[in-house]
Amino acid sequence: MLYPAESRIMLAIDCCIFGFDGENLKILLIKRNFNPEKGNWSLMGGFLRADEDLNAGAQRILHELTGLNNVYMEQLYTFGNIDRDPVERTVSICFFALINIHEHDHELAKSQNGYWFTLGKIPPLIFDHETIVAKALSQIQYKAALHPIGFELLPERFSIPQLQNLYEAIYGFALDRRNFRRKILSTGLLLDTGEKNENSSTKKAVLYKLDQAKYEKQFNAFHYFMSMK
Amino acid sequence: MLYPAESRIMLAIDCCIFGFDGENLKILLIKRNFNPEKGNWSLMGGFLRADEDLNAGAQRILHELTGLNNVYMEQLYTFGNIDRDPVERTVSICFFALINIHEHDHELAKSQNGYWFTLGKIPPLIFDHETIVAKALSQIQYKAALHPIGFELLPERFSIPQLQNLYEAIYGFALDRRNFRRKILSTGLLLDTGEKNENSSTKKAVLYKLDQAKYEKQFNAFHYFMSMK
DNA sequence: TCAAAAGTGTTCAAGCTACACCCATGA
DNA sequence: TCATGGGTGTAGCTTGAACACTTTTGA
Predict the structure, then answer these.
(1) CA A6 from chain center: how many Å?
(2) Nearest-CA residue of chain A relative to B5?
(3) For residues A112 and A89, what is the distance between their CA atoms, to the nearest angstrom?
(4) pLDDT of residue A225
(5) Same-domain check for residues A123 and A207
(6) Which of A25, A31, B23, B129 can pair with A169 through a Cys bridge, CB separation 3.0 to 4.6 Å?
(7) Cis before residue A148, ω within 30 degrees of 0?
(8) Which residues pair with B16 in a beta bridge?
(9) Which residue of A has its CA nearest to B182?
(10) pTM greater than the 0.90 cutoff
């Protein structure tokens, strides 16, 4: 038994891949060397295969461009307006990924025509991809305000000023150093590695790493309206 | 030009429809009188039509069961594991809707075999629908903790104790009356109608209504980690 | 020794928690 | 007049916001 045929629709997966270079929040886009819209910029994407789950498809597409596996990735939203793809109706299940920008396979990305763009300096994109990017950014801003996802964009060992730069890049405004530090340390998620950031040419900042156990346990913890017990 | 055929997949839309009867949070399920899984319980759903946007499809499906239009509804998540539907691979774009349980078309719901179940007393559901319901509930708990969505489940005029009952039903534990009232009133979202709840057989509670302008303006306002300017 | 970034403490205001008594209503 | 649920105020504590000076480092 099968369902009636008329409802079968093209299913795409698109990925908003974010990275942080220490100063700006960036997104990885590709210049298409294939049709449709050859020569124009788009998110990395592809069609869902018949034999793969949604997350597997998203990880595959991310891997094809970055060489990375086991990356932080979340389903963002499904876009499906009837005319969003002029070739044929295509519903796109969109994900966003947070990667350590220094760890991905630069050669691979280059071979796929992948380039990093700073948010706010993004070229025109095909289809509704600008809408998707806007939604992804707003989701990251939302989620990072409540949950410790920022660490996914940093190296394993990082300083508190690095983390603060990241937050400032995500939200686009400056934060108070003393309050930021107190807030972050009060979560208890950071472990002092005893090492210092040797790259600095001024005072070297202490490097921390995530307390993985606490991170996983506390990840979803959080409440606000709720604390009115 | 069209895309290659192999990626066309069945696309369903499923709706978690929530209501509140004054005491319990409830969900509207249907006893299927059609195949597959005839005689078993499921969410209300249907296939996406070639000529409708996703939201339109969701509103159509909601309308078919409740007779309602212009209901609060959000895209929840897209479920697409390859074996989630034994008939044929089907990706389901899921929505949740919050309705005023007293306003829907009871006859229509009945004619579609729709019945309300209290959360926690839900029968076994087909496919992965139990997962979907769990995700929807968790999303409502999450969102209601941060944004004023609870009002969507109440009549236009409602008392603060009614609202408190709703919150207690959503989270499953009791709240302090005085603190709850102060918190809710401090949002400035409520307007005193001057009327009282005539249904009560004890002291009649004052009825409020939403300040629509403020509601729309403040809906997305909210921050937590963020308030560390 | 200077410039640049890291690190540290305190004070004030606002908001949250906990908690007990009186009021209105209908039976 | 009693039982039920609605309505109110305060004190203590926690948390967030604002803010300035000292330390480390390499040029």
Answers:
(1) 35
(2) A10
(3) 25
(4) 47
(5) no
(6) A25
(7) no
(8) B96
(9) A228
(10) yes
Looking at the structure, tell me whether residues B20 and B96 fall in a common domain: yes
Are A97 and A202 within one domain? no
Across the interface, whether the CB atoms of B7 and A47 are under 8 A apart is answered yes
Nearest CB to B81; choose among A53, A77, A180 = A53
Contacts of A6 in chain B (CB under 8 A): 50
A161-169 long-range CB contacts below 8 Å, 24 or more apart?
A161/A205, A162/A22, A162/A197, A162/A205, A165/A22, A165/A23, A166/A20, A166/A25, A169/A20, A169/A23, A169/A24, A169/A25, A169/A119
Distance measured from the CA of protein residue A201 to the C1' of nucleotide C4, in angstroms: 9
Check whether A223 has a pLDDT greater than 60: no
Token digits of residue B186: 């401090």
The domain total for chain A is: 2
CB < 8 Å to B222, chain A: 224
Q: In terms of residue numbers, what domain contains A112?
A: 10-146
Domain identity same for B124 and B28: yes
In B, which residues are within 8 Å of A1 by CB distance? 35-36, 87-88
Q: Which nucleotides of D are covered by protein (CB under 7 A)?
A: 3-10, 16-20, 23-27
Confidence of residue A108 (pLDDT cuts 50, 70, 90): very high
pLDDT for A199 beyond 90: no
Residue A74 and residue A165 in one domain: no
Helices (H), ranges, A49-147 = 54-66, 106-111, 129-144
B54 contacts A78? CB cut-off 8 A: yes
Q: Do A145 and B225 touch (CB under 8 A)?
A: yes
Q: What CATH number is given to the structural domain containing B82?
A: 3.90.79.10
Would you place residue A222 in the very low, low, confident or very high pLDDT band (cuts 50, 70, 90)? low
Which CATH number do you get for residue A202? Answer: 1.10.10.10
- Structural domain contains residue B46: yes
pLDDT tens over chain B, length 229 residues: 789 877 799 999 999 999 999 999 999 999 999 999 999 999 999 999 999 999 999 999 999 999 999 999 999 999 999 999 999 999 999 999 999 999 999 999 999 999 999 999 999 999 999 999 999 999 999 888 888 899 999 999 999 999 999 999 999 999 999 999 999 999 999 999 999 998 888 999 999 999 999 888 888 776 444 543 3
pLDDT in tens, A116-174: 999 999 999 999 999 999 999 999 998 888 888 999 999 999 999 999 999 999 999 99
Work out if A203's Cβ lies within 7 angstroms of strand D. yes
Domain boundary among the residues A120, A146, A172 is at A146
Task: Assess if residue B43 is contained within a domain.
Answer: yes
**Inside any domain, residue B225:** no
User: Do B133 and B178 lie in a common domain?
Assistant: no
- Does some domain include residue B151? no
